[in-house]
Write a structure and sequence with these properties.
- The protein is of the alpha+beta class.
- The protein folds into two domains: 111 residues, no CATH class; 123 residues, no CATH class.
- The chain is built from six helices and eight strands; from the N terminus they run αββαβααββαβββα.
- A five-stranded antiparallel beta sheet has the order 4-6-7-8-5, with helices on one face. Strands 2-1-3 form a three-stranded antiparallel beta sheet.
- β6 and β7 form a beta hairpin.
- The longest helix has 21 residues.
- It is elongated, with a radius of gyration of 20 Å.
């Protein structure tokens, strides 16, 4: 691969990290491989989102599993994990003298939290008290009682949904969505084509329910048309998300 020096430095750092957190397997033989610049791959360095482009090609040609042998289907999940780990490493260095947890314990704790996050999503273990976890009190909302076993949509206020795309129109009213998901975030800025959205994960993929290019930016909230966007166009995921919201609506 012909790579720029800057991207080569970033990719080398990422591959070293990936070897410690994820398993790379050949799709045909299921042989375990090492994350390396020597890994056979047809890849041309793009102008932007270079790591995204590299991992998209990796996911097309290889199987990726976590240390619990759970298959990862979404390359953006790896980037999110990597960014969080890098940020935490930076904070650890800055606060090394004040930290009460040594590096080994911290890494083990981070690993456990990431694994538990993904496993909980897959096993539908989240309940209403987990939604919008760690958000400011002003962003927390009241929820009606719903059957907890149905809940596997996990809301997050800090997800980056800028790289998601349109997946489906939704036939839910604003009142129905608020009752099910709580108040949306007002993330649209002056020149944006949306005003509100709910950010959430489902099956380790990132999704957003949002309003898009309303004819009148002053349209009453109750009359807004809503859409589903995401970074993964798996048809089963889309159907399941719509079914989950529909089932919750039917409990009202």
């Amino acid at each position: 691969m012909d790579l720029s020096d800057k991207f080569l430095k970033l990719l080398t750092k990422f591959l070293k990290w990936a070897n410690n957190h994820y398993i790379l397997k050949c799709k045909k033989t299921h042989t375990v491989l090492k994350w390396s610049l020597e890994t056979p791959l047809e890849f041309t360095e793009p102008q932007r989102k270079k790591l995204y482009g590299y991992l998209k090609n990796i996911f097309n040609e290889y199987i990726i599993e976590d240390k619990n042998n759970i298959i990862i289907t979404n390359y953006t999940f790896l980037i999110t994990h990597y960014d969080e780990s890098t940020e935490q490493d930076k904070l650890k260095k800055e606060n090394k003298n004040d930290s009460k947890v040594n590096t080994k314990q911290y890494d083990q704790l981070l690993e456990l939290n990431i694994n538990k996050f993904c496993n909980d999503i897959k096993q539908n273990l989240y309940n209403k008290s987990d939604l919008y976890n760690n958000s400011d009190q002003s962003e927390r909302i009241s929820y009606s009682d719903i059957v907890k076993d149905d809940i596997d949509i996990v809301l997050h206020t800090d997800l980056d949904t800028s790289f998601t795309w349109f997946l489906s129109s939704l036939n839910f009213t604003s009142d129905e969505l608020i009752t099910i998901l709580g108040n949306p975030l007002q993330t649209g800025k002056k020149n944006d084509s949306h005003r509100y959205e709910w950010k959430f994960t489902y099956n380790c993929c990132i999704y957003s329910i949002y309003d898009w290019k309303p004819n009148d930016m002053n349209t009453p909230f109750k009359n807004i048309k809503w859409y589903l966007g995401g970074d993964h166009d798996d048809k089963n995921n889309i159907k399941n998300i719509i079914d989950i919201i529909s089932n919750k609506r039917n409990h009202f």
